[in-house]
């Protein structure tokens, strides 16, 4: 799933809190290469407006007054297979991404309203959703640790660090900059991580999405 290189990424917002919706709209409308095409507060309005081809990404609050944002996202994605979806929630509900139906599971991101205060993270997550990638909330990822006996627990400390940054939406160049290592070193760590997790280079599946979901699946709260 990928967005054509021409034109801005069109974003529809579905958020029932007027102040938060306005803040989201201003932030995204001011970002280069993004265009807000709708900002509504209910599933009913979203179903009416977001027809196939109307938007490239939908930013969805999970808790809406007339329905559930995840169910709305599933419906919209089944209408438009290349629609990116970014979920927002006031609660830590990141695990909900593991319960998505298989036919719509790629290209969903998740950010917490309470922990994500960076505009850069929000804009990056929208851009990632537009090209079918999965971005998970970096602040929430910092609070988890691998489950004992899992494949993720077999990663070296550096591989786990790289995996967590990859799941937070950073490019290899961005990960290298963050860790002070070369992009080639990052790619070596990514390849080793994929090998340990048994993620192959199936062209039908984005390996970064698969890796992010495995991280989500095989970690739990750090005590």
From TrEMBL:
One Pfam family, short name: Response_reg
One of the record's GO molecular function terms: DNA binding
GO biological process terms on file: phosphorelay signal transduction system; regulation of DNA-templated transcription
InterPro entries: CheY-like_superfamily (IPR011006), NreC/VraR/RcsB-like_REC (IPR058245), Sig_transdc_resp-reg_C-effctor (IPR016032), Sig_transdc_resp-reg_receiver (IPR001789), Tscrpt_reg_LuxR_C (IPR000792), WalR-like (IPR039420)
Domain Response regulatory: 10-128
Keywords noted in UniProt: DNA-binding, Phosphoprotein, Transcription, Transcription regulation
Residues modified to 4-aspartylphosphate: 61
Domain HTH luxR-type: 148-216
Name of this protein: DNA-binding response regulator
Taxonomic path: Bacteria, Bacillati, Actinomycetota, Actinomycetes, Micrococcales
């Amino acid at each position: 799933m990928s967005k054509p290189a021409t034109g801005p990424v069109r974003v529809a917002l579905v958020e029932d809190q007027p102040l938060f919706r306005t803040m989201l709209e201003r932030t995204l409308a001011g970002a280069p290469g993004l265009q807000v095409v709708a900002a509504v507060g209910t599933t009913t309005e979203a179903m009416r407006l977001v027809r196939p081809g109307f938007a490239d990404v939908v930013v969805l609050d999970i808790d809406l007054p007339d329905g559930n944002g995840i169910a709305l996202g599933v419906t919209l994605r089944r209408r438009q297979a290349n629609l990116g979806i970014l979920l927002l929630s006031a609660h830590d509900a990141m695990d909900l991404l593991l319960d998505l139906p298989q036919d719509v599971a790629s290209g969903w991101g998740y950010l917490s309203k309470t922990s994500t205060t960076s505009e850069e993270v929000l804009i990056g997550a929208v851009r990632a959703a537009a090209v079918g990638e999965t971005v998970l909330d970096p602040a929430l990822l910092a609070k988890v640790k691998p489950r004992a006996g899992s494949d993720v627990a077999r990663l070296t400390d550096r591989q786990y660090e790289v995996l967590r940054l990859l799941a937070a939406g950073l490019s290899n160049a961005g990960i290298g900059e963050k860790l002070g290592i070369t992009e080639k070193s990052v790619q070596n760590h990514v390849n080793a991580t994929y090998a340990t997790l048994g993620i192959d280079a199936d062209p039908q599946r984005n390996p970064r999405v698969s890796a992010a979901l495995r991280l989500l699946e095989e970690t739990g709260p750090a005590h």
